[in-house]
């Protein structure tokens, strides 16, 4: 299955995808989708890229900007490497009251540029995903044709990719305007001990105040002001993550 997109770049691919392959009726005819298994696949992911339309909803935890060639908003999900505090240890459910990022809802599917035509996007899947069941769940194919579950996956992946592309434009604009600064956080656990979190960027409030009026007006027209300030206001959420770590007994 495929769709086309004139702007294929959509930011970094999260670590929940490790071994993907294009969806094909001949190869995946008997597979079904079972989302009832929960989010255990993401238990070791402590940060996830966000589409621009997600930033406000996801700011219940810290939202920062990724370092690297393609800076994009990222939701921080844990304070240690390999730790996702929003995935419940008991049943793999998502912590109630917290936003579920689109990448988590799109998994195990992903749109990727075709190897033979970069302007063409093909729907792929994580072949070892626990959400894919041979002979069970919602079928991906019926009579050799994409079933409703697969059609929905393609529509969702396409919509998600569009807002991820918006994130790329947003992050690059902040970088090009000189608003981003390297940041690190030293977090003190209730039970003792500290952890240093680094490798991310934040918006410098002083430099934001100095942005020319014309630039700020342009950003407002693009719908960038709400996510911009949501990121700034999410800074105190580091304390919320520490509280969750303490509840889990890891902090």
Automatic annotation (TrEMBL):
Q: Which domain of life is it from?
A: Bacteria
Pfam families noted in UniProt: SapC
- UniProt xrefs under InterPro entries: SapC (IPR010836)
Q: What is this protein called?
A: SapC family protein
Which species is the source of this protein? Answer: Plastoroseomonas hellenica
């Amino acid at each position: 299955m495929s769709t086309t997109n004139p702007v294929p770049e959509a930011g970094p691919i999260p670590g929940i995808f490790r071994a993907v392959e294009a969806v094909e009726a001949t190869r995946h005819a008997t597979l079904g989708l079972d989302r009832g298994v929960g989010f255990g696949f993401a238990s070791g992911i402590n940060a996830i890229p966000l589409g621009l339309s997600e930033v406000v909803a996801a700011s219940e935890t810290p939202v920062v900007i990724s370092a690297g060639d393609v800076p994009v908003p990222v939701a921080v999900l844990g304070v240690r490497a390999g730790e996702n505090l929003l995935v419940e240890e008991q049943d793999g459910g998502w912590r109630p009251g917290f936003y579920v990022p689109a990448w988590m809802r799109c998994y195990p599917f992903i749109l990727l540029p075709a190897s033979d035509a970069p302007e063409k996007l093909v729907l792929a899947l994580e072949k070892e995903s626990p959400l894919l069941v041979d002979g069970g769940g919602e079928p991906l194919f019926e009579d050799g044709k994409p079933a409703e579950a697969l059609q929905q996956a393609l529509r969702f992946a396409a919509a998600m990719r569009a807002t991820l592309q918006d994130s790329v434009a947003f992050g690059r604009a902040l970088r090009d305007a000189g608003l981003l600064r390297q940041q690190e956080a030293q977090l003190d656990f209730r039970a003792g001990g500290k952890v240093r979190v680094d490798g991310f960027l934040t918006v410098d409030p002083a430099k934001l105040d100095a942005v020319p009026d014309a630039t700020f007006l342009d950003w407002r027209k693009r719908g960038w002001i709400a996510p911009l300030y949501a990121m700034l206001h999410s800074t105190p959420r580091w304390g919320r993550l520490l509280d969750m770590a303490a509840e889990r007994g890891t902090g």
